[in-house]
Design goal:
The chain is mostly helical. It has 33 helices and no strands. The chain is elongated. The N and C termini lie far apart (about 105 Å). This is Vacuolar protein 8. Keywords: Repeat. InterPro entries: ARM-like, ARM-type_fold, Armadillo, DUF7032. Pfam families: Arm, DUF7032.
Protein backbone atom coordinates (compact mmCIF):
# COMPACT_ATOMS: atom_id res chain seq x y z
CA UNK A 1 0.00 0.00 0.00
CA UNK A 2 1.29 3.42 -0.95
CA UNK A 3 1.24 6.37 1.41
CA UNK A 4 -1.33 8.95 0.18
CA UNK A 5 0.44 11.53 -2.01
CA UNK A 6 -1.61 14.38 -0.62
CA UNK A 7 0.02 13.94 2.76
CA UNK A 8 3.37 15.73 2.24
CA UNK A 9 4.90 14.79 5.60
CA UNK A 10 4.26 11.08 5.15
CA UNK A 11 5.28 11.19 1.51
CA UNK A 12 8.56 12.96 2.28
CA UNK A 13 9.39 10.46 5.03
CA UNK A 14 8.68 7.56 2.71
CA UNK A 15 10.88 9.02 -0.03
CA UNK A 16 13.80 9.47 2.36
CA UNK A 17 13.50 5.94 3.68
CA UNK A 18 13.42 4.56 0.11
CA UNK A 19 16.51 6.59 -0.78
CA UNK A 20 18.38 5.33 2.27
CA UNK A 21 17.42 1.73 1.56
CA UNK A 22 18.88 2.14 -1.93
CA UNK A 23 22.10 3.72 -0.64
CA UNK A 24 22.93 1.31 2.18
CA UNK A 25 24.06 -1.62 -0.05
CA UNK A 26 26.70 0.75 -1.49
CA UNK A 27 28.31 1.35 1.92
CA UNK A 28 31.43 -0.70 2.69
CA UNK A 29 32.17 0.58 6.20
CA UNK A 30 30.40 -0.87 9.27
CA UNK A 31 28.26 -3.14 7.13
CA UNK A 32 26.83 -4.97 10.15
CA UNK A 33 25.57 -1.78 11.75
CA UNK A 34 24.14 -0.46 8.50
CA UNK A 35 22.37 -3.77 8.02
CA UNK A 36 20.67 -3.18 11.39
CA UNK A 37 19.76 0.36 10.33
CA UNK A 38 18.25 -1.02 7.11
CA UNK A 39 16.03 -3.43 9.06
CA UNK A 40 14.83 -0.67 11.35
CA UNK A 41 14.08 1.62 8.41
CA UNK A 42 11.90 -1.08 6.86
CA UNK A 43 9.99 -1.44 10.13
CA UNK A 44 9.67 2.34 10.40
CA UNK A 45 8.21 2.57 6.88
CA UNK A 46 5.57 -0.01 7.81
CA UNK A 47 4.69 2.01 10.92
CA UNK A 48 4.37 5.21 8.87
CA UNK A 49 1.91 3.48 6.56
CA UNK A 50 -0.13 2.32 9.57
CA UNK A 51 -0.14 5.79 11.12
CA UNK A 52 -1.13 7.47 7.84
CA UNK A 53 -4.25 5.31 7.59
CA UNK A 54 -5.79 6.92 10.68
CA UNK A 55 -8.22 9.68 9.66
CA UNK A 56 -6.74 12.24 12.06
CA UNK A 57 -3.08 11.43 11.51
CA UNK A 58 -2.24 14.59 9.56
CA UNK A 59 -3.80 16.90 12.17
CA UNK A 60 -3.17 15.11 15.44
CA UNK A 61 -0.37 16.97 17.33
CA UNK A 62 1.27 13.74 18.50
CA UNK A 63 1.30 12.32 15.00
CA UNK A 64 2.78 15.55 13.62
CA UNK A 65 5.50 15.60 16.30
CA UNK A 66 6.29 11.97 15.55
CA UNK A 67 6.72 12.75 11.86
CA UNK A 68 9.00 15.69 12.62
CA UNK A 69 11.20 13.44 14.75
CA UNK A 70 11.26 10.82 11.99
CA UNK A 71 12.33 13.35 9.35
CA UNK A 72 15.07 14.69 11.60
CA UNK A 73 16.45 11.19 12.25
CA UNK A 74 16.27 10.31 8.55
CA UNK A 75 18.23 13.47 7.66
CA UNK A 76 20.98 12.48 10.10
CA UNK A 77 21.04 8.95 8.70
CA UNK A 78 21.27 10.22 5.10
CA UNK A 79 24.12 12.59 5.97
CA UNK A 80 25.95 9.78 7.76
CA UNK A 81 25.44 7.29 4.93
CA UNK A 82 27.01 9.75 2.52
CA UNK A 83 30.07 10.05 4.78
CA UNK A 84 30.36 6.30 5.14
CA UNK A 85 30.42 5.78 1.39
CA UNK A 86 33.76 7.59 1.45
CA UNK A 87 36.44 4.99 2.27
CA UNK A 88 38.55 7.61 4.04
CA UNK A 89 36.02 8.21 6.89
CA UNK A 90 36.84 11.90 7.30
CA UNK A 91 35.71 11.99 10.94
CA UNK A 92 37.69 8.93 11.92
CA UNK A 93 36.53 5.42 12.72
CA UNK A 94 35.62 5.89 16.39
CA UNK A 95 33.64 9.10 15.82
CA UNK A 96 31.78 7.57 12.87
CA UNK A 97 30.96 4.44 14.84
CA UNK A 98 29.60 6.61 17.66
CA UNK A 99 27.44 8.54 15.17
CA UNK A 100 26.07 5.29 13.71
CA UNK A 101 25.21 4.02 17.20
CA UNK A 102 23.42 7.30 17.88
CA UNK A 103 21.30 6.89 14.72
CA UNK A 104 20.50 3.31 15.68
CA UNK A 105 19.36 4.45 19.14
CA UNK A 106 17.15 7.17 17.65
CA UNK A 107 15.53 4.72 15.24
CA UNK A 108 14.94 2.31 18.13
CA UNK A 109 13.28 5.09 20.11
CA UNK A 110 11.14 6.12 17.12
CA UNK A 111 9.97 2.55 16.57
CA UNK A 112 8.89 2.34 20.22
CA UNK A 113 7.12 5.69 19.97
CA UNK A 114 5.37 4.60 16.80
CA UNK A 115 4.23 1.38 18.42
CA UNK A 116 2.78 3.33 21.36
CA UNK A 117 1.10 5.81 19.01
CA UNK A 118 -0.53 3.07 16.93
CA UNK A 119 -1.53 0.95 19.92
CA UNK A 120 -3.13 3.90 21.72
CA UNK A 121 -6.58 5.14 20.78
CA UNK A 122 -5.36 8.71 20.46
CA UNK A 123 -5.39 8.69 16.64
CA UNK A 124 -9.06 7.67 16.72
CA UNK A 125 -9.98 10.74 18.77
CA UNK A 126 -11.21 13.74 16.87
CA UNK A 127 -11.59 17.23 18.22
CA UNK A 128 -13.85 17.38 21.25
CA UNK A 129 -16.86 19.51 20.38
CA UNK A 130 -18.54 21.89 22.78
CA UNK A 131 -21.49 19.51 22.92
CA UNK A 132 -19.32 16.59 24.12
CA UNK A 133 -19.74 15.54 27.73
CA UNK A 134 -17.18 16.58 30.28
CA UNK A 135 -16.46 12.91 30.95
CA UNK A 136 -15.69 12.22 27.28
CA UNK A 137 -13.43 15.26 27.15
CA UNK A 138 -11.45 14.06 30.18
CA UNK A 139 -11.26 10.56 28.73
CA UNK A 140 -9.86 11.87 25.46
CA UNK A 141 -7.40 14.15 27.25
CA UNK A 142 -6.25 11.26 29.45
CA UNK A 143 -5.55 9.07 26.43
CA UNK A 144 -3.66 11.93 24.84
CA UNK A 145 -1.49 12.49 27.92
CA UNK A 146 -0.88 8.77 28.44
CA UNK A 147 0.47 8.55 24.90
CA UNK A 148 2.57 11.70 25.25
CA UNK A 149 4.14 10.28 28.43
CA UNK A 150 5.45 7.32 26.46
CA UNK A 151 6.90 8.98 23.36
CA UNK A 152 9.20 11.84 22.50
CA UNK A 153 11.91 13.63 24.44
CA UNK A 154 12.26 14.02 28.19
CA UNK A 155 11.22 17.65 27.87
CA UNK A 156 8.01 16.77 26.05
CA UNK A 157 7.19 14.10 28.63
CA UNK A 158 7.73 16.59 31.47
CA UNK A 159 5.26 18.95 29.80
CA UNK A 160 2.81 16.08 29.44
CA UNK A 161 3.02 15.06 33.09
CA UNK A 162 2.58 18.68 34.21
CA UNK A 163 -0.67 18.73 32.23
CA UNK A 164 -1.62 15.40 33.78
CA UNK A 165 -1.02 16.71 37.32
CA UNK A 166 -3.27 19.67 36.58
CA UNK A 167 -5.97 17.31 35.32
CA UNK A 168 -5.72 14.96 38.31
CA UNK A 169 -5.76 17.80 40.82
CA UNK A 170 -8.99 19.22 39.44
CA UNK A 171 -11.30 16.43 40.56
CA UNK A 172 -11.29 12.87 41.93
CA UNK A 173 -13.52 11.92 39.00
CA UNK A 174 -10.70 12.88 36.65
CA UNK A 175 -8.42 10.52 38.57
CA UNK A 176 -10.91 7.69 38.16
CA UNK A 177 -11.24 8.32 34.41
CA UNK A 178 -7.47 8.57 33.86
CA UNK A 179 -6.91 5.38 35.86
CA UNK A 180 -9.48 3.56 33.73
CA UNK A 181 -7.52 4.61 30.61
CA UNK A 182 -4.36 2.94 31.99
CA UNK A 183 -2.37 5.77 33.54
CA UNK A 184 -1.08 3.80 36.54
CA UNK A 185 1.39 1.37 34.85
CA UNK A 186 2.66 4.22 32.66
CA UNK A 187 3.41 6.34 35.73
CA UNK A 188 5.12 3.42 37.46
CA UNK A 189 7.43 2.94 34.48
CA UNK A 190 8.33 6.64 34.62
CA UNK A 191 9.72 6.09 38.13
CA UNK A 192 12.60 4.34 36.38
CA UNK A 193 13.38 7.43 34.30
CA UNK A 194 16.86 8.93 34.27
CA UNK A 195 15.26 12.37 34.59
CA UNK A 196 14.89 13.49 38.21
CA UNK A 197 12.30 16.07 37.17
CA UNK A 198 10.16 13.49 35.40
CA UNK A 199 10.53 10.99 38.25
CA UNK A 200 9.43 13.54 40.88
CA UNK A 201 6.35 14.50 38.92
CA UNK A 202 5.52 10.85 38.33
CA UNK A 203 5.57 10.03 42.05
CA UNK A 204 3.46 13.14 42.68
CA UNK A 205 0.87 11.88 40.20
CA UNK A 206 0.95 8.40 41.72
CA UNK A 207 0.35 9.85 45.18
CA UNK A 208 -2.79 11.56 43.87
CA UNK A 209 -4.08 8.30 42.39
CA UNK A 210 -3.35 6.46 45.64
CA UNK A 211 -5.53 8.92 47.57
CA UNK A 212 -8.71 7.98 45.65
CA UNK A 213 -10.42 4.91 47.11
CA UNK A 214 -12.03 3.69 43.91
CA UNK A 215 -8.75 3.24 42.01
CA UNK A 216 -6.39 2.39 44.87
CA UNK A 217 -6.51 -1.29 43.91
CA UNK A 218 -4.71 -0.42 40.68
CA UNK A 219 -1.75 0.84 42.71
CA UNK A 220 -1.71 -2.30 44.83
CA UNK A 221 -1.76 -4.42 41.66
CA UNK A 222 1.62 -2.96 40.64
CA UNK A 223 3.12 -4.94 43.55
CA UNK A 224 6.84 -5.13 44.22
CA UNK A 225 7.81 -3.11 41.16
CA UNK A 226 6.12 -0.03 42.58
CA UNK A 227 7.28 -0.75 46.14
CA UNK A 228 10.91 -1.01 45.08
CA UNK A 229 10.75 2.29 43.21
CA UNK A 230 9.16 4.03 46.21
CA UNK A 231 11.73 2.63 48.64
CA UNK A 232 14.57 3.86 46.42
CA UNK A 233 13.00 7.32 46.48
CA UNK A 234 12.89 7.18 50.30
CA UNK A 235 16.65 6.55 50.26
CA UNK A 236 17.82 9.06 47.69
CA UNK A 237 14.95 11.27 46.53
CA UNK A 238 14.36 14.95 47.26
CA UNK A 239 12.26 16.05 50.21
CA UNK A 240 9.32 16.62 47.84
CA UNK A 241 9.66 13.17 46.27
CA UNK A 242 10.01 11.47 49.67
CA UNK A 243 6.81 13.09 50.90
CA UNK A 244 4.90 11.93 47.82
CA UNK A 245 6.40 8.44 48.10
CA UNK A 246 5.24 8.23 51.71
CA UNK A 247 1.74 9.34 50.73
CA UNK A 248 1.66 6.51 48.18
CA UNK A 249 2.98 3.99 50.70
CA UNK A 250 0.22 4.75 53.20
CA UNK A 251 -2.49 2.69 51.46
CA UNK A 252 0.03 0.13 50.23
CA UNK A 253 1.39 -0.56 53.74
CA UNK A 254 -2.00 -1.74 55.02
CA UNK A 255 -1.33 -5.10 53.35
CA UNK A 256 0.63 -7.62 55.45
CA UNK A 257 2.52 -8.82 52.38
CA UNK A 258 3.57 -5.29 51.45
CA UNK A 259 4.43 -4.49 55.07
CA UNK A 260 6.73 -7.50 55.17
CA UNK A 261 8.38 -6.41 51.91
CA UNK A 262 8.92 -2.86 53.19
CA UNK A 263 10.42 -4.17 56.42
CA UNK A 264 12.74 -6.64 54.71
CA UNK A 265 14.03 -4.01 52.24
CA UNK A 266 15.15 -1.47 54.83
CA UNK A 267 12.06 0.68 54.51
CA UNK A 268 11.58 1.19 58.26
CA UNK A 269 15.09 2.59 58.63
CA UNK A 270 14.47 5.03 55.75
CA UNK A 271 11.10 6.10 57.17
CA UNK A 272 12.58 6.70 60.63
CA UNK A 273 15.33 8.82 59.08
CA UNK A 274 12.65 10.95 57.44
CA UNK A 275 10.92 11.28 60.82
CA UNK A 276 14.16 12.63 62.24
CA UNK A 277 15.31 14.95 59.47
CA UNK A 278 12.63 15.24 56.79
CA UNK A 279 10.40 18.14 55.86
CA UNK A 280 7.33 18.67 58.10
CA UNK A 281 5.07 17.17 55.44
CA UNK A 282 7.29 14.15 54.82
CA UNK A 283 7.63 13.52 58.56
CA UNK A 284 3.86 13.32 58.97
CA UNK A 285 3.53 11.01 55.96
CA UNK A 286 6.42 8.77 57.03
CA UNK A 287 4.92 8.42 60.52
CA UNK A 288 1.60 7.43 58.96
CA UNK A 289 3.32 4.62 57.03
CA UNK A 290 5.15 3.49 60.18
CA UNK A 291 1.82 3.50 62.01
CA UNK A 292 0.47 0.98 59.50
CA UNK A 293 3.61 -1.16 59.63
CA UNK A 294 3.63 -1.28 63.44
CA UNK A 295 0.25 -3.02 63.42
CA UNK A 296 1.97 -6.20 62.21
CA UNK A 297 3.67 -8.01 65.09
CA UNK A 298 6.37 -9.58 62.95
CA UNK A 299 7.58 -6.10 61.93
CA UNK A 300 8.00 -4.90 65.54
CA UNK A 301 11.53 -6.27 65.80
CA UNK A 302 12.61 -3.95 62.97
CA UNK A 303 11.44 -0.95 65.00
CA UNK A 304 13.33 -2.08 68.07
CA UNK A 305 16.53 -2.65 66.08
CA UNK A 306 16.28 0.86 64.59
CA UNK A 307 15.56 2.53 67.97
CA UNK A 308 12.15 3.42 66.61
CA UNK A 309 10.47 4.34 69.91
CA UNK A 310 13.05 7.06 70.63
CA UNK A 311 12.65 8.50 67.13
CA UNK A 312 8.86 8.56 67.45
CA UNK A 313 9.05 10.28 70.81
CA UNK A 314 11.33 12.87 69.24
CA UNK A 315 8.72 13.47 66.56
CA UNK A 316 6.04 13.73 69.25
CA UNK A 317 8.15 16.44 70.90
CA UNK A 318 8.75 18.58 67.83
CA UNK A 319 6.62 17.52 64.87
CA UNK A 320 3.53 19.08 63.37
CA UNK A 321 0.17 18.14 64.97
CA UNK A 322 -0.45 15.56 62.22
CA UNK A 323 3.06 14.11 62.61
CA UNK A 324 2.53 13.91 66.38
CA UNK A 325 -0.81 12.19 65.94
CA UNK A 326 0.69 9.59 63.60
CA UNK A 327 3.66 9.09 65.94
CA UNK A 328 1.28 8.37 68.83
CA UNK A 329 -0.74 6.02 66.64
CA UNK A 330 2.45 4.15 65.77
CA UNK A 331 3.41 3.92 69.45
CA UNK A 332 -0.03 2.52 70.23
CA UNK A 333 0.51 -0.32 67.76
CA UNK A 334 4.03 -0.98 69.04
CA UNK A 335 3.36 -1.09 72.79
CA UNK A 336 0.20 -3.21 72.75
CA UNK A 337 0.97 -6.24 74.94
CA UNK A 338 4.59 -5.16 75.42
CA UNK A 339 5.26 -3.86 78.94
CA UNK A 340 8.95 -3.32 78.23
CA UNK A 341 8.19 -0.80 75.49
CA UNK A 342 5.62 0.89 77.74
CA UNK A 343 8.26 1.35 80.43
CA UNK A 344 10.71 2.65 77.80
CA UNK A 345 8.18 5.32 76.77
CA UNK A 346 7.79 6.40 80.39
CA UNK A 347 11.57 6.52 80.99
CA UNK A 348 12.06 8.67 77.89
CA UNK A 349 9.52 11.28 78.99
CA UNK A 350 6.54 9.89 77.10
CA UNK A 351 3.97 10.81 79.77
CA UNK A 352 4.94 14.48 79.69
CA UNK A 353 4.90 14.48 75.86
CA UNK A 354 1.48 12.80 75.82
CA UNK A 355 0.12 15.38 78.26
CA UNK A 356 1.51 18.23 76.15
CA UNK A 357 -0.08 16.86 72.98
CA UNK A 358 -3.39 16.29 74.77
CA UNK A 359 -3.54 19.88 76.02
CA UNK A 360 -2.70 21.36 72.59
CA UNK A 361 -4.59 18.94 70.31
CA UNK A 362 -6.02 20.84 67.32
CA UNK A 363 -9.33 18.95 67.40
CA UNK A 364 -11.25 16.39 69.43
CA UNK A 365 -10.78 13.87 66.61
CA UNK A 366 -7.00 13.99 66.98
CA UNK A 367 -7.35 13.04 70.66
CA UNK A 368 -8.42 9.49 69.84
CA UNK A 369 -4.89 8.11 69.51
CA UNK A 370 -3.79 9.98 72.65
CA UNK A 371 -6.63 8.47 74.68
CA UNK A 372 -5.83 5.06 73.22
CA UNK A 373 -2.18 5.35 74.23
CA UNK A 374 -3.26 6.44 77.71
CA UNK A 375 -5.32 3.26 78.08
CA UNK A 376 -2.49 1.05 76.82
CA UNK A 377 0.04 2.60 79.20
CA UNK A 378 -2.43 2.42 82.10
CA UNK A 379 -2.73 -1.36 81.72
CA UNK A 380 0.55 -1.47 83.67
CA UNK A 381 -0.25 -0.59 87.30
CA UNK A 382 2.99 1.29 88.07
CA UNK A 383 2.51 3.40 84.96
CA UNK A 384 -1.16 3.94 85.80
CA UNK A 385 -0.13 5.53 89.11
CA UNK A 386 2.20 7.91 87.27
CA UNK A 387 -0.55 8.82 84.81
CA UNK A 388 -2.96 9.59 87.64
CA UNK A 389 -0.40 11.78 89.37
CA UNK A 390 0.07 13.67 86.08
CA UNK A 391 -3.58 14.70 86.01
CA UNK A 392 -4.95 12.36 83.36
CA UNK A 393 -8.09 11.52 85.36
CA UNK A 394 -9.27 15.12 85.03
CA UNK A 395 -8.35 15.16 81.34
CA UNK A 396 -10.23 11.91 80.69
CA UNK A 397 -13.66 12.97 81.98
CA UNK A 398 -14.54 15.43 79.16
CA UNK A 399 -13.56 12.80 76.57
CA UNK A 400 -16.43 10.57 77.76
CA UNK A 401 -18.99 13.18 76.73
CA UNK A 402 -17.44 14.45 73.49
CA UNK A 403 -19.11 14.10 70.13
CA UNK A 404 -16.54 11.72 68.62
CA UNK A 405 -17.41 8.04 68.94
CA UNK A 406 -13.82 6.78 68.76
CA UNK A 407 -12.66 9.17 71.47
CA UNK A 408 -15.52 8.19 73.80
CA UNK A 409 -14.86 4.49 73.30
CA UNK A 410 -11.11 4.84 73.89
CA UNK A 411 -11.80 6.96 76.98
CA UNK A 412 -14.11 4.31 78.49
CA UNK A 413 -11.44 1.67 77.94
CA UNK A 414 -8.89 3.93 79.63
CA UNK A 415 -11.25 4.36 82.62
CA UNK A 416 -11.29 0.59 83.05
CA UNK A 417 -7.48 0.46 83.07
CA UNK A 418 -7.03 3.44 85.39
CA UNK A 419 -9.64 2.10 87.83
CA UNK A 420 -7.25 -0.53 89.13
CA UNK A 421 -7.55 0.43 92.80
CA UNK A 422 -10.21 1.59 95.25
CA UNK A 423 -8.69 5.05 95.62
CA UNK A 424 -8.90 5.81 91.91
CA UNK A 425 -12.38 4.29 91.57
CA UNK A 426 -13.56 6.54 94.40
CA UNK A 427 -11.91 9.58 92.80
CA UNK A 428 -13.54 8.87 89.44
CA UNK A 429 -16.95 8.31 90.94
CA UNK A 430 -16.84 11.56 92.88
CA UNK A 431 -15.56 13.41 89.81
CA UNK A 432 -18.68 12.43 87.82
CA UNK A 433 -17.56 9.55 85.61
CA UNK A 434 -20.66 7.39 86.25
CA UNK A 435 -23.23 9.50 84.38
CA UNK A 436 -21.46 9.74 80.99
CA UNK A 437 -20.63 6.03 81.15
CA UNK A 438 -24.31 5.21 81.76
CA UNK A 439 -25.20 7.33 78.74
CA UNK A 440 -22.71 5.35 76.68
CA UNK A 441 -24.55 2.10 77.48
CA UNK A 442 -27.09 3.34 74.91
CA UNK A 443 -24.31 4.33 72.51
CA UNK A 444 -24.16 4.17 68.74
CA UNK A 445 -21.86 1.18 68.42
CA UNK A 446 -21.37 -2.17 70.09
CA UNK A 447 -17.77 -1.19 70.88
CA UNK A 448 -18.93 1.92 72.74
CA UNK A 449 -21.54 -0.02 74.73
CA UNK A 450 -19.07 -2.75 75.69
CA UNK A 451 -16.37 -0.26 76.69
CA UNK A 452 -18.86 1.58 78.92
CA UNK A 453 -20.07 -1.65 80.56
CA UNK A 454 -16.49 -2.75 81.13
CA UNK A 455 -15.56 0.59 82.72
CA UNK A 456 -18.65 0.55 84.98
CA UNK A 457 -18.02 -3.05 86.04
CA UNK A 458 -14.65 -1.81 87.31
CA UNK A 459 -15.85 1.41 88.97
CA UNK A 460 -18.80 -0.27 90.71
CA UNK A 461 -16.43 -2.45 92.70
CA UNK A 462 -16.31 0.60 94.98
CA UNK A 463 -19.45 0.73 97.17
CA UNK A 464 -19.89 4.49 96.90
CA UNK A 465 -20.07 4.28 93.12
CA UNK A 466 -22.90 1.71 93.31
CA UNK A 467 -25.02 4.25 95.12
CA UNK A 468 -24.31 6.82 92.39
CA UNK A 469 -25.19 4.28 89.71
CA UNK A 470 -28.47 3.35 91.41
CA UNK A 471 -29.55 6.97 91.20
CA UNK A 472 -29.16 6.94 87.41
CA UNK A 473 -32.68 6.62 86.06
CA UNK A 474 -31.83 4.49 83.01
CA UNK A 475 -28.72 2.72 84.31
CA UNK A 476 -30.29 -0.67 85.14
CA UNK A 477 -32.52 -0.81 82.07
CA UNK A 478 -29.66 0.10 79.72
CA UNK A 479 -27.40 -2.53 81.28
CA UNK A 480 -30.11 -5.21 81.03
CA UNK A 481 -30.57 -4.48 77.33
CA UNK A 482 -26.93 -5.40 76.77
CA UNK A 483 -27.69 -8.94 78.01
CA UNK A 484 -29.75 -9.54 74.88
CA UNK A 485 -28.01 -12.40 73.00
CA UNK A 486 -29.08 -10.86 69.69
CA UNK A 487 -26.56 -8.05 70.29
CA UNK A 488 -23.53 -9.82 68.82
CA UNK A 489 -19.84 -9.07 69.33
CA UNK A 490 -20.45 -7.71 72.83
CA UNK A 491 -18.81 -9.58 75.72
CA UNK A 492 -21.76 -10.31 78.03
CA UNK A 493 -19.59 -10.81 81.09
CA UNK A 494 -19.30 -7.04 81.53
CA UNK A 495 -23.03 -6.21 81.81
CA UNK A 496 -23.43 -9.36 83.94
CA UNK A 497 -20.70 -8.15 86.31
CA UNK A 498 -22.12 -4.64 86.34
CA UNK A 499 -25.62 -5.87 87.31
CA UNK A 500 -24.28 -8.35 89.85
CA UNK A 501 -22.60 -5.52 91.73
CA UNK A 502 -25.97 -3.82 92.48
CA UNK A 503 -28.03 -6.99 92.97
CA UNK A 504 -28.14 -6.41 96.74
CA UNK A 505 -30.63 -3.62 96.18
CA UNK A 506 -34.26 -4.82 96.04
CA UNK A 507 -35.13 -1.80 93.91
CA UNK A 508 -32.45 -2.74 91.38
CA UNK A 509 -33.64 -6.37 91.31
CA UNK A 510 -37.17 -5.23 90.54
CA UNK A 511 -35.92 -2.99 87.75
CA UNK A 512 -33.89 -5.87 86.28
CA UNK A 513 -36.86 -8.22 86.38
CA UNK A 514 -39.15 -5.62 84.81
CA UNK A 515 -36.63 -5.02 82.02
CA UNK A 516 -36.57 -8.73 81.09
CA UNK A 517 -33.25 -9.74 82.65
CA UNK A 518 -34.54 -13.21 83.58
CA UNK A 519 -35.23 -14.26 80.00
CA UNK A 520 -31.90 -12.91 78.75
CA UNK A 521 -29.99 -14.59 81.58
CA UNK A 522 -31.56 -17.97 80.87
CA UNK A 523 -30.15 -17.78 77.34
CA UNK A 524 -26.76 -16.60 78.61
CA UNK A 525 -26.60 -19.54 81.03
CA UNK A 526 -27.07 -21.85 78.05
CA UNK A 527 -24.22 -19.99 76.37
CA UNK A 528 -21.98 -20.50 79.47
CA UNK A 529 -21.39 -16.78 79.98
CA UNK A 530 -19.33 -16.16 83.12
CA UNK A 531 -21.44 -15.10 86.11
CA UNK A 532 -24.79 -15.45 84.33
CA UNK A 533 -25.93 -18.52 86.28
CA UNK A 534 -25.21 -16.96 89.66
CA UNK A 535 -26.91 -13.71 88.66
CA UNK A 536 -30.01 -15.59 87.45
CA UNK A 537 -30.21 -17.56 90.72
CA UNK A 538 -29.94 -14.38 92.77
CA UNK A 539 -32.56 -12.67 90.66
CA UNK A 540 -34.90 -15.62 91.10
CA UNK A 541 -34.48 -15.79 94.88
CA UNK A 542 -34.48 -12.06 95.35
CA UNK A 543 -31.32 -12.49 97.37
CA UNK A 544 -27.61 -12.48 96.76
CA UNK A 545 -25.21 -15.04 98.06
CA UNK A 546 -21.57 -14.72 97.31
CA UNK A 547 -21.93 -12.44 94.30
CA UNK A 548 -19.39 -10.15 95.94
CA UNK A 549 -17.80 -10.07 99.35
CA UNK A 550 -19.12 -7.55 101.83
CA UNK A 551 -16.66 -5.36 103.58
Amino acid sequence: MKIPPENDQFSLSNDRISSLLDDIPLINNFKGKWSSIRAKLSDLRTQLIDVSEFPNSSSNPLSVDFLHSVLKALSEAAFLSEKCRNPELSDGKLKTQSDIDSVLAKLDSLLKDGEVLIRSEILHDGAVSSSSSRREAVRAESRNLITRLQIGSIESRVLAIESLLKLLNEDDKNVTIAAAQGIVPVLVRLLDSSSLELKERAVAAISIVSSVDGVRHLMIAEGLQLLNHLLRILDSGSGFAKEKACLTLQPLSISKENARSIGSRGGISSLLEICEAGTPGSQASAAAVLRNLASFGEIKENFIEENGVIVLLGLLASGTPLAQENAIGCLCNLVAEDDNLKLLIVREGGIELLRSFWDSAPSVHSLEVAVELLGLLASSSPIAEALISNGFVDRLLPALSCGVLGVRTAAARAVHELGFCTKTRKEMGEAGFITPLVNMLDGKSVEEKEAAAKALSSLLQYTGNRKIFQKEEKGIVSAVQLLDPSISNLDKKYPVSLLASVMISSKCRKQMAAAGAGLYLQKLVEMNVDGSKKLLECLGRGKIWGVFARS
